[in-house]
């Protein structure tokens, strides 16, 4: 009842005010209904809708009552969306009302934002809440004309979060992002500046201007801004190339003729400052700019050098992009050599690009071998081919190879693939393989069978049996000796302790055998404890009796 | 000449031994000879054929060595000429010690024989 009509009235009043009807007839009942909603018992959303409807319809409302109702609702509901709605409601109240407490909520809400990796700042409730917070905070701050307590870093991180998505889950999410964009581009305090290069950030002789687009978050160009390149330094050498250079505005784009400073090719780090309005936020940016150039090949000399240096080298000069007319021969006695220089086409400065390859392509077999040409200390590139050294790369296949020079780099506008000459290579014929096989790298390799540990070599059974008999033979000798000495058991008394002792002793020996064959140490110790104690007691008794007998005899 | 003296020394020693040593000690001496021969034969096997179950060889050899030592101790303690040095140890006590030590020795030997 009350909820539905409130919401309906809210939307209807918004539509009416949007269509700018100056006076809208409203009955007293409607007005009373809206005023009655402004109380502690309605939700923040209802209060927002009724206050908005009342202000859209131009009806008077008691701002102080609204403020106290809002404060009560904030302490009761205390969730992010309720507080945001309170902020939006407060921005529709009279400026004379005491909105200080509500204004403080902006700071409390900002403290609830989650910092994600120092790049994003958003509520855990999601993107919509974050975007609505931004638009509510700025609309209230504009209304009371007090700067919102958001630091520059926070504003930058909020912008990152709000504009991180390219498509939205719902219409309300899209609305919140649009609303935030509108507040961020048009409020009295903070206007984030977006700087991007038009096209790739690269300059060259044919495109000497560095073009930057400087806009607000709604991509509206900030024509009142002045863009200054505070410094530009080479990334590799860190030497400064430019200082305090002003960009000029042309057709809504800021441009600077960087090539006028004659930078060498490479990468440069620019530090750009945008001034012109005290509201600008994020107005210092770092930019990486590439300077490209065209490369020219000078002094390409091909020669055949004799190994024992008996004949002087014959050098042929070839101009790019022509091909040498005669082909060159390299075999066991002669090496093929190539030298050249790489320079910047316009300035003549020597260059050392990342990729300088020499490719030899056998037209008949399709083989291809690539080498790297290295520069020496004077930046002169050299390449030498010794057939004896390099026969493994070529698989010793003789024939005519087309020689290509490949030059490439990120900062070169004209990468080069130049068929310089034909080279006839001769390897020793006996080493050439019969058929030319494509290098098979990705076939299964031969299986490695597992080698189990081989048991140790045992001596033949006959030998071990012989030695067993041999080792047991001294026992026989012992028995013979004892017999000869007259050892006897005539003193054997048949008392129980003697018998028990001998049984126990025999049991111990038996236990040893059983230990060897079946038991482990713990079990043996257990049995030994039993047998041993019996044997000990019996033996003690027996020996004591023997001792007494001996004393009696003496 | 030296040969003769060595032989004469040995023969005299054997005579003395046969006459003056009590029988009990001779019994033990025979046992000692037996143990020594067993140990020597085991060592010979190891030299000739190899140390294949090395743990077994060690255990057997140590058993012989240990038994020899214990028997020598028994002989010393039983010898009536040494009575003065072993006043608190009667021959029976010596024999009991001998048996106990042998039990421990054999426990270790059997554990190691594998």
From TrEMBL, chain A:
Transmembrane segment boundaries: 467-487, 499-518, 524-544
Domain Ribophorin II N-terminal: 22-185
Pfam families according to UniProt: Ribophorin_II, Ribophorin_II_2nd, Ribophorin_II_3rd, Ribophorin_II_C
Keyword Transmembrane on entry: yes
GO cellular component: oligosaccharyltransferase complex
Ribophorin II C-terminal domain residues: 452-550
Pathway info: Protein modification; protein glycosylation
Presence of the UniProt keyword Signal in the record: yes
Topology term for the membrane: Multi-pass membrane protein
Residue ranges occupied by any Ribophorin II third domain in the UniProt entry: 299-425
Signal peptide positions on this chain: 1-18
Coiled coil start-end: none
Ranges for domain Ribophorin II second: 193-291
Keyword vocabulary terms for this entry: Endoplasmic reticulum, Membrane, Signal, Transmembrane, Transmembrane helix
InterPro entries hit by this protein: Ribophorin_II_2nd, Ribophorin_II_3rd, Ribophorin_II_C, Ribophorin_II_N, Swp1
Subcellular localization, as worded in the UniProt entry: Endoplasmic reticulum membrane
Listed GO biological process terms: protein N-linked glycosylation
Role description: Subunit of the oligosaccharyl transferase (OST) complex that catalyzes the initial transfer of a defined glycan (Glc(3)Man(9)GlcNAc(2) in eukaryotes) from the lipid carrier dolichol-pyrophosphate to an asparagine residue within an Asn-X-Ser/Thr consensus motif in nascent polypeptide chains, the first step in protein N-glycosylation. N-glycosylation occurs cotranslationally and the complex associates with the Sec61 complex at the channel-forming translocon complex that mediates protein translocation across the endoplasmic reticulum (ER). All subunits are required for a maximal enzyme activity.
Family: Belongs to the SWP1 family.
Subunit structure and binding partners: Component of the oligosaccharyltransferase (OST) complex. OST exists in two different complex forms which contain common core subunits RPN1, RPN2, OST48, OST4, DAD1 and TMEM258, either STT3A or STT3B as catalytic subunits, and form-specific accessory subunits. STT3A complex assembly occurs through the formation of 3 subcomplexes. Subcomplex 1 contains RPN1 and TMEM258, subcomplex 2 contains the STT3A-specific subunits STT3A, DC2/OSTC, and KCP2 as well as the core subunit OST4, and subcomplex 3 contains RPN2, DAD1, and OST48.
Protein name: Dolichyl-diphosphooligosaccharide--protein glycosyltransferase subunit 2
Organism of provenance: Sinocyclocheilus rhinocerous
UniProtKB/TrEMBL annotation, chain B:
InterPro entries noted in UniProt: DAD/Ost2
Pathway: Protein modification; protein glycosylation
Role of this protein: Subunit of the oligosaccharyl transferase (OST) complex that catalyzes the initial transfer of a defined glycan (Glc(3)Man(9)GlcNAc(2) in eukaryotes) from the lipid carrier dolichol-pyrophosphate to an asparagine residue within an Asn-X-Ser/Thr consensus motif in nascent polypeptide chains, the first step in protein N-glycosylation. N-glycosylation occurs cotranslationally and the complex associates with the Sec61 complex at the channel-forming translocon complex that mediates protein translocation across the endoplasmic reticulum (ER). All subunits are required for a maximal enzyme activity.
Cell compartment(s), UniProt: Endoplasmic reticulum membrane
Protein name: Dolichyl-diphosphooligosaccharide--protein glycosyltransferase subunit DAD1
Residue ranges of the TM segments: 31-50, 56-74, 94-113
Listed Pfam families: DAD
Quaternary structure and interacting proteins, as annotated: Component of the oligosaccharyltransferase (OST) complex.
Keywords for the protein's UniProt record, in alphabetical order: Endoplasmic reticulum, Membrane, Transmembrane, Transmembrane helix
Gene Ontology terms describing biological process: protein N-linked glycosylation
Superkingdom of origin: Eukaryota
């Amino acid at each position: 009842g009350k909820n539905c009509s409130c919401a309906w009235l809210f939307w209807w009043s918004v539509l009416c005010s949007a269509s700018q009807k100056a006076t809208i007839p409203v009955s007293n009942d409607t007005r009373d209904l809206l005023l009655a909603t402004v109380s502690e018992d309605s939700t923040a959303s209802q209060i927002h809708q009724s206050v908005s409807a009342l202000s859209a319809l131009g009806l008077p409302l008691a701002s102080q009552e609204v403020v106290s109702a809002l404060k009560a609702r904030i302490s009761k509901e205390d969730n992010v969306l309720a507080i945001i709605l309170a902020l939006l409601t407060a921005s529709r109240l009279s400026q004379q009302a005491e909105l200080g407490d509500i204004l403080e909520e902006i700071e409390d809400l900002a403290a609830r934002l989650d910092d994600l990796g120092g790049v994003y700042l958003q509520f855990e409730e999601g993107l919509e809440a974050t975007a609505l917070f931004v638009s509510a905070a700025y609309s209230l701050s504009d209304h009371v004309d007090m700067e919102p307590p958001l630091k520059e870093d926070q504003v930058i991180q909020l912008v990152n979060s709000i504009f991180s998505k390219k498509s939205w889950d719902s219409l309300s999410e899209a609305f919140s992002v649009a609303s935030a964009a509108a507040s961020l581009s048009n409020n009295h305090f903070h206007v984030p500046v977006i700087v991007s290069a038009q096209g790739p950030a690269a300059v060259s002789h044919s495109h000497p201007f560095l073009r930057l687009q400087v806009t607000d978050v709604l991509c509206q160009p900030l024509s009142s801004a002045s863009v200054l390149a505070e410094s530009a330094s080479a990334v590799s050498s860190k030497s400064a190339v430019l200082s305090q250079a002003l960009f000029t505005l042309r057709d809504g784009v800021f441009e600077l003729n960087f090539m006028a400073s004659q930078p060498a090719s490479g990468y440069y780090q620019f530090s750009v400052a945008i001034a012109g309005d005290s509201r600008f936020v994020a107005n210092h940016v770092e930019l990486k700019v590439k300077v490209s150039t065209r490369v020219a090949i000078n002094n390409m000399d091909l020669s055949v050098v004799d190994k024992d240096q008996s004949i002087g080298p014959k050098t042929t000069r070839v101009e790019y992009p022509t091909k040498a007319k005669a082909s060159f021969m390299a075999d066991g006695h002669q090496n093929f050599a190539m030298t050249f220089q790489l320079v910047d086409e316009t300035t003549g400065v020597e260059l050392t690009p990342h990729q300088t390859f020499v490719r030899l392509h056998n037209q008949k077999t399709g083989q291809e071998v690539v080498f790297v040409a290295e520069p020496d200390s004077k930046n002169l590139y050299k390449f030498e081919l010794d057939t004896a050294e390099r026969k493994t790369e070529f698989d010793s296949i003789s024939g005519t190879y087309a020689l290509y020079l490949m030059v490439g780099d990120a900062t070169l506008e004209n990468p080069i693939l130049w068929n310089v000459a034909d080279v006839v290579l001769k390897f020793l014929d006996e080493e050439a393989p019969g058929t030319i096989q494509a290098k098979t790298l990705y076939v299964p390799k031969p299986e490695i069978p597992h080698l189990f540990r081989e048991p140790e070599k045992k001596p033949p059974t006959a030998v071990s049996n012989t030695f067993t008999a041999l080792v047991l033979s001294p026992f026989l000798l012992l028995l013979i000796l004892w017999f000869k000495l007259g050892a006897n058991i005539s003193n054997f008394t048949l008392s129980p302790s003697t018998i028990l002792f001998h049984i126990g002793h025999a049991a111990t020996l038996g236990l040893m055998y059983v230990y060897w064959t079946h038991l482990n140490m713990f079990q043996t110790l257990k049995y030994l404890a039993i047998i041993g104690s019996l044997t000990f007691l019996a033996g003690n008794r027996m020996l004591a009796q023997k001792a007494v007998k001996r004393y009696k005899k003496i | 000449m030296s040969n003769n003296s060595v032989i004469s020394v040995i023969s005299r020693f054997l005579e003395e031994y046969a006459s003056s040593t009590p029988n009990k000690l001779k019994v033990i001496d025979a046992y000692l000879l037996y143990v020594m021969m067993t140990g020597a034969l085991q060592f010979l096997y190891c030299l000739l054929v190899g140390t294949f179950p090395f743990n077994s060889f060690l255990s057997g050899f140590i058993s012989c060595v240990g038994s020899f030592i214990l028997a020598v101790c028994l002989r010393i303690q039983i010898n009536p000429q040494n009575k003065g040095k072993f006043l608190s140890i009667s021959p029976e006590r010596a024999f009991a010690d001998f048996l106990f030590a042998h039990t421990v020795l054999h426990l270790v030997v059997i554990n190691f024989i594998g």
